[in-house]
Task: structure prediction
Amino acid sequence: MSTTRREIAAPHWLVQLLRSTPVPIPWNMVARAVLALAVPLAVGYALGDIGVGALVSTGALPTVLSESAGPYRYRARRLGGATAAAALGYFAGLITGGIPAASIPVVVGVAAMSALISAAGSNASVAGLQMFVFCVLGTGQHVTGLRVEILLGYFCVGAAWSLLIALSSWTFRATSPERGAVAHVYVELAAMLSATDEATSRVARHQLTTAMNTAYDRLLTARSWLSGRDATYRQLLNLLSASTPAVEASVAMVNAGRRAPDDVIDHFIATSAAVLANQDLPEPPEAPEDADPVLAALYAGLARIGKGDNRKRREVQPWHKRLRSWAGSLISGPLTWFAALRLTLCVAIAEVVALFVPFERSYWITLTVGIVLKPDFGSVFGRAVLRGIGTVIGVGIGAAVLAAGGEGWLLVLLIAVFAGGVAVGKVRNYGILSAFVTPLIILQMDLASTGSWDVVLARLVDTVLGCAIVLLFGYLLWPGSRRPQIGGRLAESLDSLVKYVDKGLVLAPSGEARLERSRARRRAYRALADLRTAFQQVVVEPSAAGRQAVAWWPVIAGLERVADAVTEVGVTLGGGAPAPSDADIALLTAALAELAAAVREERDPAEMPMPDNEQLSGVVDQIGAAFDAVRGPDLVERAPLRLVRRFLPYHRRA
Result:
C-alpha cells in the first residue's frame, strides 16, 4: 500500500504544479503588451536601427511585467512605482556594469532591499522586484558600447511609452474597473444559485468570495485617494454594501442544498447588467406568500439592494504612518528577514558562479535566482521547477527563431507574439510566463545585436545553474524550507471564524450591529480564501510541507462549511427566529478555539461539549466534522492518498 501511495502522491504534486489557472484570456492586457513592446521595435526597424528599437522596447518591460487589473488610480501608482524603481535599478546596474568589484555588491544590496520592501505591500513588492531585475540586466549592457546616459535615455523613452499605453483610456473609462467589479459580484451570485450539485456550488461560492474581496478592495482603494467629490465611488460602495443581506441569504440557501427560484437568478443577472451600464436598477421580484425564512430573507435582500445607507468616507493614511507601519512589520516580522537573508545569500552565490561561467552576459544566473526566490510569490520549489521548464521551452523557441533566420519584420512579429504570451502567462501559469519572457528578453537584449546560437546555449545553461542554486541553497539546505507551515495559517483562520460565530449568531437590531456582523463574515471568508491560496502554493512541493498541505485539505474544506452553516443560521434570525443563547454560542466559540490551539500545538483536540440545540445542529455537525479531520492521521506525516481521492474534485476546481 505504501508503494501505491507514493506512486499516486508524486504525480499529484506534479499535476498541480503544471496546472493552469482557468481564467479568461485578458485580451486588453495582451493588446497593451503588444503595443508597448512591438511598436518601438517596429519604429526602430523602419528607421534603420532595430537595435535602438530593442533598447527602447526594454524600457517598456517593467510596465508589462507589473500590469494588473484594477482601478486606474491603483494601476497608475503600481505601474509608476514599478517603472521608477526599474529605472533606478537599471541606472545602478549601468554605472557598475563591467566592474565586478562594484557590480556584485550593488546587485547583492539591491536584492536585499528588494526583499525588505516587499513587506510594505503588493505595490512595493512589485517595485522591488523590478528594481532588482533591471539592476541585473543593466550590469550586462556595457557590452553594447553605448554611454550610460544614452542607454538610460532609451530606457526612459520606452518606459514613458508603455505608461501612456497602459493609462491612455483613463479619461473615458475612469470608473469602469470598479463598476465591473461590483457587477461581477451579481454574476457570481447568479452562478452560485444556479449550481446543480454541491461541488459546483462550492466552487461558485469560492468565486463569489473572490469577487466580493476584489470589489471591496478596488472601491476602498479608490475612495481612499479621493478628496470629497467621490459620488460615483460612494454610490458603488453603498450598492455593494447593500448586497450583503442577499449574499448571506444566497449562501444560506446553497448550504441548505436548495436552488433559488428563476426570478431571483434573473434579477441578479439584470442587476449586473444595470450596474455595468450605469442604469437604474430593475425592480426586485415579489416574495411568494408561503416563503420559508431563508427564501423570505433572499427576497428581502433583493429589495435591499440599492437602498443602503451611506458609508463613512475612508480617510487617507498619512505617508509617515504607512512608513512607520512598514518599519514595525520589519521589526516584528522575522520571516521577512529570513526571506531577505536567503535571497541575499543565493544572489551572492550566483554572482560568484557567474564569474567562472565561460559565457558572456551570465547575469541570467543571478536574474533567475532573484525571480524564483522573490519572498512573497509562493513555493520556492514550484517556481524553480516551472522556471526551468519554461526556460527550456523558451530557449527552444529562441533556437527556432535563429534557425529560421529571424530578422526585420519577422523579429517584430515574434516580439508581438511573445509579448502577448507574457500577458497570458502572468494570469495562467508561471511556467507559461517563463516560456514567453525568456525568448522575449533574448530577442530584445541579445539576438537583436548578436544573432548567435551561443546566446541560446548560454541562456539555457545560466537558467539551469540559477535554478540549481535556488533548489540547493534556497530550498534543500535552507533551514525550515521543507517544514510544514500551513498549520499556523489555518489556526489564524480559525481565530477569524471564532469572531464570526460570536457576531453572526446573535440578533442585530441596529445598523451598526448588522455592519459589525457583515464585517466579521467578510473577514472570516477572506481568511479562508487566503488559506486556500497558501495551500495551493505549498501543495506543489514533494516534501513534508506538500504532503501535510494535502492532509490539511479536509480541515480547510470543513471550516468553509462551518462558515456557511453559521451564515445560514444568521439568515434565519432575520426572519424572526429566536437567537441562540449566549451559553450555546460560548460552547461553539470554545470548541473552535480549542481546535485552533490543537492545530498550533500539533496535537489532537480535546473533547468539547456542544450545544443541544436543533437550530444550531448544522453548525455543530460541521464543527464535529472539522474535529474529526484534525484527529485524522498524524499531522506531520499524514498519508495523502485517501484525502486526495476524497477531496480532489473540490481542489481541482478551486
